[in-house]
Amino acid sequence: MSKSLSGKRIAILVDNGFEQSELTEPKKALEHAGAVAPVVSPRRGRVRAWKDTDWGEEVAVDVPLADAQAEDFDGLVLPGGVLNPDQLRINPDALRFVREFFEAKKPVGAICHGPWTLINAGVTEGRNMTSWPSLRADLENAGAHWVDQEVVSDKGLVTSRKPADLPAFNERLIAAFAADDGRS
């Protein structure tokens, strides 16, 4: 991948219980492409990953959510895991932060269970999306058109189903974040 994201700052929003690979792999890909990808969280210090069927590594929080504003970033990534988005989707600061990206028409990526947070932020209606299969009814009830595809792009929103889809997800994320107006 080229350094097409040089000078871009892409926030990665997580709470405890994010799927480890769904944070670490996009972060590596974004940084390899030249972006800075700070971890934003409602927790201070460190957050803990979920890896497959047990707790995984801890990751440093770079920006406390209370101090984060979308205007300071060029895009947003929402990793999945079940616990992580279940906590974020009921956090008013997380929902505010997510909505700010959509209001500013900045690109957003969400994988696996990450779209749960998008539902509660009220930004899924009328969008083509994918996710972990168990979210299908939730997304359809929130007005999204759900499809079972490796990765789906819709006006700057990039969604993907699972860790096995990370290569395609990362490629599409970089393309969305490199675009001049991530919403085309």
Poorly predicted segments: none
Overall residue-averaged pLDDT value: 95
Q: How many individual domains?
A: 1
Rg result: 14 Å
The total count of strands amounts to 12
Number of helices: 6
CATH class: Alpha Beta
Kindly report the name of the CATH homologous superfamily.
Class I glutamine amidotransferase (GATase) domain
Listing every helix as H and every strand as E from the N terminus to the C terminus, the arrangement reads EEHEEEEEHHEHEHEEEH
Give an account of the 3D structure.
With 184 residues, this protein is α/β, with parallel strands linked by helices. 31% of the residues lie in helices and 24% in strands. It has a single domain, classed as Class I glutamine amidotransferase (GATase) domain (Rossmann fold). It has six helices and twelve strands. The protein has a seven-stranded mixed β-sheet, with helices on both faces.
Name a few traits of the molecule:
alpha/beta, 184 residues, seven-stranded mixed β-sheet, 12 strands, Rossmann fold
In short:
With 184 residues, this protein is an alpha/beta fold. The chain is built from six helices and twelve strands. It has a single domain, classed as Rossmann fold.
SSE inventory with pairings:
Layout: E1 10-13, E2 18-19, H1 20-32, E3 39-41, E4 46-51, E5 54-60, E6 63-64, E7 75-78, H2 83-88, H3 92-103, E8 108-111, H4 115-121, E9 128-129, H5 136-141, E10 145-146, E11 151-154, E12 157-160, H6 166-178
Parallel strand pairs: 1-3, 1-7, 2-4, 3-6, 7-8, 8-12, 9-10
Antiparallel strand pairs: 4-5, 11-12
Helix pairs in contact: 1-6, 3-4
